[in-house]
User: What shape does this take?
Amino acid sequence: MAGEVRQLDDRKLAVLRAIVQDYVGTEEPVGSKALVERHNLGVSPATVRNDMAALEEEGYIHQPHTSAGRIPTDKGYRLFVDKLAEVKPMSAPERRAIRHFLDGAVDLDDVVARTVRLLAQLTRQVAVVQYPSLSRSTVRHIELVALAPAKVMLVLIMNTGRVEQRLVDCPGTVGETVLADLRGRINARAAGQRLPDVPGLLEELPAQFEAADRPTVSTVLATLFETLAEQREERIMLAGTANLTRFGHDFPLTIQPVLEALEEQVVLLRLLGETADAGMTVRIGRENAYEGLNSTSVVSVGYGSGDESVAKLGVIGPTRMDYPGTMGAVRAVARYVGQILAES
Amino acid sequence: MAGEVRQLDDRKLAVLRAIVQDYVGTEEPVGSKALVERHNLGVSPATVRNDMAALEEEGYIHQPHTSAGRIPTDKGYRLFVDKLAEVKPMSAPERRAIRHFLDGAVDLDDVVARTVRLLAQLTRQVAVVQYPSLSRSTVRHIELVALAPAKVMLVLIMNTGRVEQRLVDCPGTVGETVLADLRGRINARAAGQRLPDVPGLLEELPAQFEAADRPTVSTVLATLFETLAEQREERIMLAGTANLTRFGHDFPLTIQPVLEALEEQVVLLRLLGETADAGMTVRIGRENAYEGLNSTSVVSVGYGSGDESVAKLGVIGPTRMDYPGTMGAVRAVARYVGQILAES
DNA sequence: TTCTGGCACTCGTGTGTTCAGAGTGCCAAG
DNA sequence: CTTGGCACTCTGAACACACGAGTGCCAGAA
Assistant: This one.
């Protein structure tokens, strides 16, 4: 293991931690003297200066110009997040407030809307919440209703509360008994299953019907499969864009590409898509694939109605953000949304 | 009519027009000399200065500081829009592009999404499009389907393509014949009617059924009326927020309240609600009821599938905007969306 | 070996001054 | 009513300058 990466002793790490904390607080480059004053490191500024030099050598911090204080680099934040910081749990009153705020929701749309606003308010950053997606959720019920001799309406109800409907044009007249039979068989197999698994489970269904009815059955199933596969419904809700104004001093330059990114659902979806399935994901600065977000950090996490995550949510803020606090808020909100979804 | 408002002669109006045009173009206060050079007014700078003094006296223009050029006031823009400017029609290629872009839409959501993006792009400002609202649109068809002995699904299809569905729990078993009868009668009366008018037209319906069926009929109708009345579905779509960065030099101050306003659907709805039913509405600066938008102008207009407007759309930009061009774009887009809706 | 105090050096920021240019208002003459 | 001339005002850019924060390095102490 002895190699490229020189070992950083504990004090250097403490110095880095202190730099990150101070910089996040003040938004100004932090110098050795101020550091010693605000954190009791038990050593002199000169010593800290030596450590800083080492940290800079390793690329964890950086000087805007000679005779200025130090600023953490992306790499520095990364180390901070991985090794030096702990997720800050929400206080009891905060938890109560979250719970209370989300409890008032009346339907899925409302849950998502409340969640995104809450998250933006808690973190004072831009919040992003993905709607519980089709591909992850499960079937609660599938309904078939004859509207006209050759027209059937297909209604797909998911465990997340989402409802999708399609009109099916059948090749011939559909008998009510056949329809009832089909409805029963579909639900028996599909109910409770995850959406992507459903087509496989229904594959052999047409064979169970009389030859005359098979075209109809196949048509209905084809529409159902289409509906299941349609992922373009992966919507995303945004809030807190006004918080962008607190991003940085060098304004329009930072904010413009971010606003552009936020308008592109595709970008946001991809962004959340990169979130690990388990645990929280933090992408810092240039770690973000999308260029416009190179000066921002994204904290995201999956949430779900059970133990499984059905969608993602997160916040986007300046790399100089309060990581422990943000992560705490994101985690707490995700947890509570999960509970709300499970209850309903 | 001789009174408070002193008459402005033609040349003064020409000067005002020139000032607005130049200021919109350059974003810098415009002085007498530059004015004479760029527009051939046929008089000397000194004369223009006199006119400017008069215009300032009347409150149409204003000087940031002594020895600076003049800037139009809200009142100046107002006069410009009302009397001095003509809506600039789109060029043929532009019209083709609009048409082409909107023609690709596959459903109502897509139409709205495309419209808002198009509008943002054409005007390089923030675009807002309201979904065709329930209260203005008309009924295309109402469908009733028995799902279970005492459960009926109510489907409301509107001329805008929007579909709403509700599950109705009936007080007793519902006979298929009664349901068919009810369906027929409802559609005979309601089809083609505006949503708010429908309840009045169906009032006497229960009386036409046998006493035993009346509770069911009433329940179904009650649900239908609820659905019709529900206006919270008045959604709004936004695009072009990145254009906010081009708003002004004094950045965060202007942009923050605007971003806050844009997040509030309620504010936007009220904003569009103030649009006159016929013709285009232009609200300049402080004419906007919402405080955060006091330094912006809103150009909005109704659009609809027929001759009647079913919803509004518009753009939000700095008071210093190209009014003729913006109004042209807004009008053209509204017109084409109307056509698209009428066709589908 | 590691820490510390001292010291010289760098450089950004804030302040004050100057200067040119743009623009005005006013006035007297056309 | 228009015009040219003129004195005046004010902003913004350019420059000089001093201050102070912060650094790096070195020699001596622990």
Remarks:
- The longest strand of chain B covers residues 139-148.
